[in-house]
């Protein structure tokens, strides 16, 4: 994985943009980033001995924000969305270099030449530094500092700049976020350890045709090129989807899994007789706040890596059911009416599995096995020689609070849109479905995959199917609530 991205569109208030020069706005953003860096120690460190079995964090004396924060203005005659996507893909697939002397993150701020009231801030980072929730926390922190800086130049004057753009850093070592394993125990039973070892080490010849592994999408190291499609769901539709999910005892995460399964079950060849998917799990809920060993640590406001995952199996019986119910021909309405009950049923199943995993706490979680891995380089090379485990992965960051109040009493900066994208994972799920919403606003679902490993027609059909289903089920919520005809 090269880069993970969380992008937010910031609406800028008149008190910041009226009569201001581009340089002035860029300075405010740079200073807000500087305050954010000082608040989160993980943004201040490098990685030493990255290619060794035991890499470690390195202390830096300063950081050159002119290197880490880049601005771009898209001309009036250019296709803004196309230019935005090009820069997003570049950030997803461009490796972070000089990790021993620079932190593994970068920002690309983008705006239209004719629009000075909104900017897209692309945050890309090396996942070793922090997880997707960390990216969400970054933007919420940045928003707060932007609003505090509006009309308050004293905040900028307090920053420890050694020279323009070069920020002096404190010693971050004593405030770095701890690993989850340092705060809580991840107990593992012998049965779980043996079962996991067998699943990992079993020869491919013993897996059989009904294996849940994604044999249909072999692992390929090259070309390492990501692609993605974005689905944007309108605010009213999002509200209706949430109502419908509650009525059917599921969540958006469970629903995205079910919709992906239905689409792939119909598209993939009959030789695919079983599948597995992954859900990324945020473990911050299990971490203590301000423990005696790390009194500064608040897991819910910490940019760190506290993530795990769980598997969901789709056996032959489920694929057969979908394939028998899906009409060979007919309208989109015919397809939906024939499968809607199943979609809700399977979405509820996934939700029950997730709840059972969370109710079990940290017992028999895959994180408990990581201490057995002596060298991750060897582990990844071995994994790349085996069949891919998951056909898709769902990661849902939930809701970003984009509201803001200006430091000078104005309306303040606000986040009006957010996107979440993950670069190709050579050994990960064939598809990445990445979800994030803005409070009271749109929900974005990004469907990503590695080029040349998947027929683009399958990815486009999956994107189209998920969009169609979400819009249909959202409209259904409107009818149930009597808000539309």
UniProtKB/TrEMBL annotation:
SUPFAM superfamilies: CoA-dependent acyltransferases (SSF52777). Pfam families: AATase. InterPro entries: Alcohol_O-acetyltransferase (IPR052058), Atf2/Sli1-like (IPR010828), CAT-like_dom_sf (IPR023213). One of its GO terms (molecular function) is N-acetyltransferase activity. This is Alcohol acetyltransferase FCK4. It comes from Hapsidospora chrysogenum (strain ATCC 11550 / CBS 779.69 / DSM 880 / IAM 14645 / JCM 23072 / IMI 49137).
């Amino acid at each position: 994985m090269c880069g993970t991205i969380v992008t937010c569109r910031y609406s800028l208030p008149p008190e910041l943009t009226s009569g201001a020069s581009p340089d002035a706005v860029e300075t405010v953003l740079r200073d807000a980033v500087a305050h954010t860096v000082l608040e989160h120690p993980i943004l201040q460190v490098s990685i030493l001995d990255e290619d060794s079995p035991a890499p470690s964090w390195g202390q830096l004396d300063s950081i050159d924000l002119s290197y880490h924060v880049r601005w771009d203005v898209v001309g009036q005659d250019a296709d803004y969305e196309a230019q935005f996507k090009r820069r997003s893909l570049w950030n997803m697939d461009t490796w972070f270099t000089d990790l021993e002397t620079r932190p593994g993150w970068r920002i690309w701020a983008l705006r239209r030449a004719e629009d000075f009231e909104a900017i897209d801030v692309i945050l890309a980072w090396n996942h070793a530094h922090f997880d997707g929730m960390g990216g969400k926390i970054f933007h919420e922190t940045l928003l707060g500092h932007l609003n505090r800086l509006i009309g308050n130049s004293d905040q900028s004057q307090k920053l420890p700049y050694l020279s323009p753009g070069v920020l002096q850093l404190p010693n971050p070592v004593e405030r770095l976020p701890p690993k989850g394993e340092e705060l809580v125990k991840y107990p593992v039973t012998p049965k779980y350890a043996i079962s996991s070892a067998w699943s990992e080490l079993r020869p491919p010849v013993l897996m059989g045709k009904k294996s849940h592994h994604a044999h249909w999408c072999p692992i390929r190291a090259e070309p390492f090129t990501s692609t993605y499609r974005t689905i944007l769901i309108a605010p009213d539709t999002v509200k209706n989807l949430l109502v419908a999910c509650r009525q059917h005892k599921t969540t958006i995460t469970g629903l995205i899994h079910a919709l992906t399964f239905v689409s792939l079950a119909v598209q993939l060849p009959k030789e695919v007789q079983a599948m597995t998917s992954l859900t990324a799990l945020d473990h911050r809920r299990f971490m203590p706040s301000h423990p005696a060993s790390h009194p500064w640590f608040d897991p819910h406001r910490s940019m760190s890596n506290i993530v795990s995952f769980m598997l969901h199996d789709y056996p032959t019986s489920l694929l057969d059911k979908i394939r028998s119910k899906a009409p060979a021909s007919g309208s989109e309405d015919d397809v939906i009416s024939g499968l809607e009950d199943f979609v809700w049923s399977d979405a509820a199943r996934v939700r029950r599995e997730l709840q059972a995993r969370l109710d079990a706490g940290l017992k028999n979680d895959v994180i408990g096995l990581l201490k057995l891995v002596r060298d991750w380089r060897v582990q990844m090379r071995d994994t790349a020689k085996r069949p891919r485990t998951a056909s898709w992965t769902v990661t849902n960051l939930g809701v970003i609070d984009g509201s803001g109040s200006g430091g000078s009493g104005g309306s303040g900066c606000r986040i009006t849109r957010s996107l979440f994208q993950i670069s190709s994972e050579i050994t990960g799920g064939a598809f990445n479905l990445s979800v994030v919403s803005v409070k009271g606003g749109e929900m974005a679902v990004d469907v990503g995959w590695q080029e040349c490993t998947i027929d683009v027609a399958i990815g486009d059909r999956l994107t189209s199917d998920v969009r169609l289903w979400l819009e249909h089920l959202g409209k259904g919520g409107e009818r149930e609530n009597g808000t539309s005809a």
